[in-house]
């Protein structure tokens, strides 16, 4: 369960009642936490980012009501964080972390190959991949580059990729 994450969000809820509460600083800190838990583009971040005190003429007129604008903003902030906590309790931590790890593994795999290529070959590869040629032509040109590194180096790259911890984990699952 997401115990640490829930504790952090509960601390942020408690900070809303602090005497020296400062909305902008609180928002920035909260956004950092939410980004780590739910990802940079989460709805929770979007909602926290929209929080602000309203000082328009209508808001000043309505301030004589049950709650000040500051309290209304804090109440909304509490609800956003409580919904986040409820989501974590019900569904656990979202899977965006897995996608980040997969992207990092792909980057590591690619680096294994790029380390075997000369600078001019990397430039050729970039040129081929960004060209408007059809897929078959791109494949043919990439094959030519790979043939240039030689059979031994190609095997070394494949062996390194297959022995990479992410690949080993994936292979063991199948």
Describe the structure.
With 174 residues, the protein is mostly helical. The chain has two domains: 3-91, no CATH class; 96-173, no CATH class. Helix content is 79%, strand content 0%. The chain has helices at 3-15, 23-38, 43-50, 57-62, 69-91, 96-116, 119-130, 135-163, 165-173. The two termini are 26 Å apart.
- SS-based class: mainly alpha
Strand content: under 5%
Q: Could you give the count of β-strands?
A: 0
Rg measurement, Å: 26 Å
Order of helices and strands: HHHHHHHHH
The chain-level mean pLDDT equals: 84
Helix content: over 70%
Gap from first CA to last CA = 26 Å
Shape: elongated
What low-confidence regions span 5 or more consecutive residues with pLDDT below 50? 56-61
How many separate domains? 2
The biggest sheet, with number of strands, parallel, antiparallel or mixed sense and barrel status, is: none
Number of helices: 9
Layout of strands and helices, then pairs:
Layout: H1 3-15, H2 23-38, H3 43-50, H4 57-62, H5 69-91, H6 96-116, H7 119-130, H8 135-163, H9 165-173
Summarize the structure.
Residues 56-61 have low confidence and may be disordered.
Comma- or semicolon-separated keywords:
174 residues, mainly alpha, 2 domains, elongated
């Amino acid at each position: 369960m997401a115990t640490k994450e829930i504790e952090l969000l509960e601390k942020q809820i408690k900070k809303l009642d602090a005497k020296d509460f400062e909305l902008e600083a609180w928002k920035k800190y909260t956004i950092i936490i939410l980004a780590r838990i739910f990802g940079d583009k989460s709805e929770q971040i979007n909602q926290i980012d929209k929080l602000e005190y309203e000082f328009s003429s209508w808001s000043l007129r309505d301030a004589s009501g049950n709650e000040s604008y500051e309290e209304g903003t804090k109440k909304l902030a509490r609800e956003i964080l409580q919904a986040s906590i409820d989501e974590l309790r019900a569904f656990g931590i979202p899977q965006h972390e897995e996608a980040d790890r997969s992207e990092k593994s792909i980057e590591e795999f690619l680096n294994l190959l790029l380390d075997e290529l000369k600078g001019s070959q990397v430039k050729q590869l970039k040129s081929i991949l960004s060209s408007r040629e059809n897929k078959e032509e791109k494949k043919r040109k990439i094959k030519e580059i790979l043939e240039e590194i030689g059979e031994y180096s190609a095997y070394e790259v494949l062996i390194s990729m297959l022995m990479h911890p992410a690949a080993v984990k994936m292979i063991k699952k199948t």
